Amino acid sequence: MKKFRTLMDVIESRKSIRSYKPQKIEEEKLEYILQAFRKAPSAKNIQPWKLVIVKDRKKRNDLAIACNNQTFIAEAPIIVVACAKEDEAYGTMGGYMNSYPVDLALALEHLILAAAEQGLGTCWIGSFKEKLVKDLLGISENIRVVALTPVGYPAEDGRNRGRKPLSDIVCYDKYID
């Protein structure tokens, strides 16, 4: 496994993986990435989340279908389904929105970076049919599915998709288009 010297090394090495080896994930690695998720910040530290860890082969196949037939998802030995307790989340972020999408994005990114550090691949899945995912996993109506990610050993390197330069995305002291 590659050793990383800095967090930036992990960030720069992480890529979306769309092909996985059938190799089982060691329990200590799974525990490590779940702890990274658990330690993420959330608005007012409410932690309005719950993960469903899906290992069952049939359920993984069914989830791939619920994710608009992204069949590569089922190749991974684990699919993480990130759920939000909308009613518990901080309700007035910025004075206009519920915090749960941001809370879950932060926590899932912690998990994704920890997975990369451990030599595991992931791919943020935002294309899914929430009702189908809920039905497959017995998720209550009042819970929101925010995102999913397969987790497994990569069978590919992933593509470097590039990033915009800082000059295109950062401005100082006032917003400039």
Count of individual helical segments: 6
Oligomer: single chain
Query: Can you list the strand order of the major beta sheet?
Result: 1-2-4-3
Radius of gyration: 17 Å
| N-to-C order of helices and strands | HHEHEHEHEH
Q: What percentage of residues falls in helices of 4 or more residues?
A: 25-40%
Shape: globular
Q: How many domain regions? A: 1
Given this structure, which CATH class is correct?
Answer: Alpha Beta
CATH superfamily: NADH Oxidase
CATH topology-level name: NADH Oxidase
Low-confidence stretches: none
Task: Please state the second-level CATH architecture.
Answer: 3-Layer(aba) Sandwich
What does the average pLDDT come to? Answer: 96
Number of E strands? 4
Strand content: 5-15%
| Structural classification | alpha+beta
Distance between the termini: 42 Å
Question: Sheet bearing the most strands, described?
Answer: 4 strands, antiparallel
List keywords for this structure.
single chain, 177 residues, alpha+beta, NADH Oxidase, 6 helices, 4 strands, 14% strand, globular
Notes on the structure:
Helices cover 33% and strands 14% of the residues. It is an alpha+beta fold and 177 residues long. The chain has one domain (7-169): 3-Layer(aba) Sandwich (NADH Oxidase), CATH 3.40.109.10. The protein has a 4-stranded antiparallel β-sheet, with helices on both faces. The longest helix is centred in the middle third of the chain and has 18 residues, at 100-117.
Write the layout of secondary structure elements.
Elements: H1 7-13, H2 27-38, E1 49-54, H3 57-66, E2 78-84, H4 100-117, E3 121-122, H5 130-137, E4 144-152, H6 166-169
